[in-house]
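Archive entry. Fields below.
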Amino acid sequence: MSAVPIISVDGVSKQFGVSYSLMRRLAGEPPLAVHALNNVSFEVHRGETLGIVGESGCGKSTLARCLVRLLDPDGGAIRFEGRDISTLRSAERRAFNKRVQMIFQDPYGSLNPRMTVSQVLNEALSVHRMRPKRDIPARIIELLDLVRLPHDAASRHPHEFSGGQRQRIGIARALAVEPDVIVADELVSALDVSVQAQVINLLLRLQEELHLTLIFVAHDLRLVRHISHRVAVMYLGQIMEIGPSEGVFASPRHPYSKALLDAAPELDPTHRSRVVAARGELPSPLNVPPGCPFASRCPHVFDRCRVERPALTKRAPAHSAACHLVDFGAMPSALADAV
Amino acid sequence: MSAGIGTGLGLTVRGLTTLFDTPRGMALAVADVDLDVGPGEMVGLVGESGSGKSVTLRSIMGLIQTPGHVTGKVEWGGRDLVAMPAEELRRIRGSEIAMIFQEPMTALNPVLPVGLQLEENLVAHTRLNARERRARALELMNIVGIPAAERRLNEYPHQFSGGMRQRAMIAIALACSPKLLLADEPTTALDVTIQDQILKLLLDLRDRLAMSVVLVTHDLGVIAGTCDRMAVMYAGRIVEMGTVIDVFRQPRHPYTRGLLGSVPRAGAVRTMLSSIEGTPPGLTDLPAGCAFHPRCSFATDICRQERPPLQSLGADRKVACFHHDRVAAAEAIL
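PREDICTED_STRUCTURE:
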């Protein structure tokens, strides 16, 4: 891990306004807003895979979109190699777009149905002037090889491919501009398990070959655990826990991470539990409670959690959690030494 | 656990076949499916999209419409549901056999309050009067764990969260105390902590109401956490069947083995997953012989020519593979 992070996110917030109803105007109440991101900070190092995991509505997709500047944050800053990306203009911005690429969840919606695969790739290659015009066809073949699609795929339209193949086209398009960072938002959640595994294997191999930095956003804990070096667990627009993959999954230091882990279905029919991992449901993001966002569902909740929001603090080297119970999930020191 | 067979209890499916006449030819969605569900038993039906697991469930329930065509036998309480007149089937559907669906937002009527949709079922199948129906509706809401039931009964589905909608749908299904619950991917659209709640609710209800449950899912983890027995489907056929413990311990069909290997597990971080190459075949254009052979690493000539029959391997274990011994002997993947 190099010392200078390739991306650093510093106190980023993002709100989405909801239409200001007449009733609220008359009552003199302020307009409502969805707090999609709430003071999120973390760093991404070159060559690593950072997994961002959370349930729907936790803000993980908003975060992904902010990272590639499809959305501009309301507060805080995102720095790419030390430069605030919101200050980039014209040529610099295009250069940034080239180096940080996003792959979307929906392989049906993110490819133009009227363009052939070679047109899709050609567009990416020529907009960013990646190759002289005469070298483009050869580069397209190279890209298809890279994602293991047959060469005749170039002249076909997206509807002629299966979901897994379409996702490969999405990957090829992102790789066409030779990016440093790939942000993958729910890359495989629309795919069948066996095809999921193919795409995950492809991603692992490409990362190795091309020294990519990968930000892998997903709701599937098993997938995130499998692919990530480090993991950030999000809940209601905040990072609840961030740390090395083994650390977070072996001994989660936040009750929410533990609940998420307990709820994830494991492939072992001999270890069954009838205890519900987390009661209740996600509170409305329009009305985030003042204390810890997880307080309403947490089995370990106490008075302080309801009034004071816990800050993300260090629990172990490179491992932080936002919980008032600082010792939650900590191994007894003797045990920790043994491990 | 096949105590129900022959005694008139439980569900017995024999040779269930569902064809769809499509412009591209006959699609064989479900082919020759045999399935037994004993009383109080939870059976999982697992497979990828297009494997025929949902169509099997719908065929059992008699929900297949033209251009679909169902043949075979679905025996329930000594009666054959496939051959039964529509009117008689209506009396069983929703009372003795109930079904819950993947997407509660489309399965529920968006313009009717949840309470009214619950009562519809009671009006159709019971002789309760309005006051008794209201009381039963409240009781059901409590059973499935919807708080503030009194108020919630008057609300519309869009006012419910995804998890609460699924609970409401389960409440409607349970209205007449069914003996068999058919659950079609009931948790696929939900978050994991909510999925966990709903699955544990289903297990509790199964115990309390002594229901049989057929659970269709694509997630092997869900099967591992809930079911007693399981059947794996591929291209419309059951390819492996057995108790969940047995199948997970030693898969005997290469497809089951591949599925298990495709799911990321703890303790193998950033390793290659043992994926299955290729994609499932189209149902109008199934390969000759074993439908799985183009994707199978165990395949030999016989697999390309002949379809392996679903053979019995002792109590409660069936597999449709010529090479099941080799598959069983292969290196463990779990």
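CURATOR_NOTE: The CA atoms of residues 250 and 329 of chain B lie 9 Å apart.
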